Amino acid sequence: MKRFDRRTLLRGTLAGGVVTVGLPLLDCFLDDNGIALAQGAPLPVRFGAWMWGCGMNPERWNPATEGTEFELPIELGALERELADGSRLRDQVSVLSGFDVKLDGRPNFPHTTGLMGTVTGNLPLEDYTVPAPTLDTIIASEIGSLTRFRSLEMSCTGNPNQSYSFENRGVPNAPEISPVALYQRVFGPDFADPNAGPFEPDPRLMLRQSVLSAVKDDRGRLLQRVGAHDRQRLDQFFTSVRQLEQQIDVLLAGPPNLQSCRKAAAPGPDDLGTEVGQATNTNRLMAELLSLALACDQTRVFSMMFSDRISGLRQAGSSSQHHQLTHDEPLDPEIGFQPEATEFVFASMEAWADFLERLADVPEGDGTLLDNCLVFGHSDVSLAKVHGITGVPMMIAGRAGGALKPGVHVAGATAPTTRVGLTIQQVMGLPTERWGARSMEATQAISEILA
Amino acid sequence: MPSYPPRPKRTRLLVGIIVLAAAGCGAETSRPSVAVDAGPIALRRLTVAQYGRSVHDALGAHIAIPSRIDPDDRRDGLLSVGATFAGVTPSGFEKYEAAAMTIAEQALDPEHRRALVDCEPASLTAPDDACASEFVERIGRRLFRRPLTTDESRSRVEIAHEASEALDSFYGGLELALASLLVSPEFLFRVEEIEPDPADSARTRLTSLAMATRLSYLLWNTAPDERLLSAGEQGALVDDAELAAEVDRLLASSRLEDGLRAMFSDIYDFRQFDDGLVRKDAALFPAFTQTMIDDAKEQTLRTIVDHLIRDRDYRTLFTTTQSFLTRRLGVVYRVPVATASGWEPYVFADGSDRVGLLAHISLNALHSHPGRTSATLRGKFVREVLLCQDVPTPPANIDFSILEDTTGELRTARERLEAHVTNDSCAGCHTLTDPIGLALEKFDAIGMYREEENGVRIDTSGELDGVPYGDAAGLGQAVSNHPSLGPCLVKTVFRYAVGRELETGEQELFAFLGERFADSGYVVTELLRELILSDGFRTTSGPRAVEETP
């Protein structure tokens, strides 16, 4: 990475007050990969995960036939919707049914094991624990250092303590729960607005760099005084310090040169909670903000938790929650499923469609933002009533810049869910050849969905 | 902070008896020695509360602490154990840095800088290294909880110099130097240094300076004050007598209230109130409001702290009718509260069901769903948190068909839950939790009293490990008398104090502390004193090794 002499620059910039930074100076802020943002360069490919809790009813969610043009099952009806450009959402989404989480004799901790198997490739030996890094952080550690934010984590039900994005067991990425706070973080005073006239770098940004370099100087002394456990944690800490330096470099470089980039409008006041209407609305508002954050290349990795794995979603005025209903509500013998619990499956699939629709609304290059994304939609179980971990419902939306062929149904035939995670990593350009542990180890990508 | 009625003078009767008894055996010291192989130490990330309090103490109480700091990690039921494992993610560090800038700006704003900076800069618009250095060294010592090294201090003075020059402002520069102290891992983590024990070279102990920090966060939930820090620097806290004197001082301080509050907020997972996660359905519970539930949390903490600082028996927290109420809470308890706004001491009437903490709104609302009670969650809390008993997680593949009430005839929680108990795979756990929770069924999901559910009179009778009871008050009595109640608190407070699980080499200490706690009449301040003076708190096996990933 090319470094500039911060001190010289700082004095130069500040000596005569704020000056407009010319292009040659700008260049020195970008590292070698920064060229990706220059005119004519390919558009970035983004990865995101979108998770909903408590699964679905397999016989009503899994398509009956494989390949394209399968009949959309009733619980996937939300994908029927038409997009702004006249195309169908279902043609942007591949459905992956019949992939299993394999226990190898380990316990099936309700709602935990299925989720962790799918997003970490490994199974926990204790309940409520995370056995390995989650897919989004694996990808972020490869591509996240190019952007202002390494990744953005969000959740829709107002719990600041729950996300399914983990660096490791002790290091969860805390989610943004408030659209107002997400807006402030991405589009607040630090945001370099491409439509706001000539760019003037904030002199304080460079002073913030000085603050960070002093912290890095503390590193060696501290590392000498701690054990192996703490060395790992401090490595993590200083990686985070470097990420913030990178963030400031990006801010100093000025507004992104991307046609679709514009500053988002500020959202109205937050209304957070577990009522399904609140979660649905938060999901829409966050998707709106995220779509512009992606269009402005503020990040290339995100994760969204629509509902918790033990889903606390509920209808106003009801004494029951989604998860509780999946266990307590009687199966209606006439129809063969739990009608009240199933309403939350429909609500979740509508929210998934809302999210994708928003990404597809942003034009980018010759297509849409969604064309340059890979969005992994999944749950923690199949049939929540029995904590099913066979046929965990998964979907992949978007074309990942042309690497994917969406609109396909693939039946996994008991293959491990990790084949999906492996495919995602390879599509995102990671050199991963095998992923997952024991029977969950996957070695083959799902070629049916590759372009 | 709440103000409590005056605190009675502490009596040391029980301790005196122990000293005499030991002297009678011909022992030189009053302290019997217990063999302890203490567990490992590690960096502990400041909790959100500790971060705020440490900033206030060092930089000024006027500072508004930004709310956007990464949440604490809860592990093995405690945030203080999670702090031993918590890391800092990129977004977490981003928040720390933003907070540091805001805090530094407030600390050195024109109104408050005089109180914080002892020297007068030569010029307001230019660097002054001497004055910056004075500030960095003095404030840095408070924030790092030790004197700064030459390098640490020099690099901050350089920042101040550079930034003062760039911004044409001495205090502007100082702000950035202060911010760089606030984002240092030396501030954000508690770093506990160790050394060989001169009395026994096979053992490793915390240094005197490390003891200052460990003591202060345990008892006051904040950084050491000047006197404790000085004692730490002078080596006093590795001396038995000097340590005991400092412990007495800290225990006698009103700041102990803050420490006890933090401890019980952590043990009872009251963060859920602070995070707004104890929500109820507005249509089903019109009396529920966020301010009411905030008061309910505060009621319980006031009750606990007032009880414990008066050195009352910990066990009687579960039978006491003494508490504190606001008028808002009075509405839900359906009792008159004379004070129009604010708190008043309140004693629930004889014969009332409101006996002990388990009858409080807070715990009943916390361990309920948004739309209904949960006898299982309430019972799980008593088993796991109060009695330290394991309740296994439910098996994954359960046949719930037995619970499917197709006829609508199961109208009470008892009828629905008894269905579990007739099913073998459920009975193992539900017989542990449900009878406890069913005793509390007359308190609905916001803790409001009711006689009936769906038109059926609620039956609150049951038994706890062989002790039968008829109602919530009887359950409180049974919990209070339960042989595991005291030992469980010993274990939990120890884990809270050292930020990790109890190690096998600490079993003997655990038993010893349990005996001393019982001998003291279950006085929590005595437990804290014994714990701090023990080798479990003062020694360690060394730095923690890497966690094994299976």
Short overview:
With 451 residues, chain A is α/β, with parallel strands linked by helices.
Description of the structure:
The complex is a heterodimer of chains A (451) and B (550). A 7-stranded mixed β-sheet of chain A has the order 3-6-1-9-10-2-11, with helices on both faces. Chain A has a two-stranded antiparallel sheet with strand order 4-5. In chain A, β4 (166-168) and β5 (171-172) form a beta hairpin. By secondary structure, chain A is α/β, with parallel strands linked by helices. Chain A has helices at 6-15, 23-29, 58-61, 113-120, 135-143, 179-187, 203-217, 219-223, 228-252, 276-295, 322-328, 339-361, 418-427; strands at 46-51, 93-97, 152-155, 166-168, 171-172, 301-305, 363-364, 367-368, 373-378, 394-397, 409-411. Chain A has 13 helices and 11 strands. By secondary structure, chain B is mainly alpha-helical. In chain B, strands 3-4-11 form a 3-stranded antiparallel β-sheet. In chain B, β3 (194-197) and β4 form a beta hairpin. Chain B is globular, with a radius of gyration of 26 Å. Chains A and B meet through α1, β5, α7, α8 and α9 of A and α4, α7 and α8 of B.
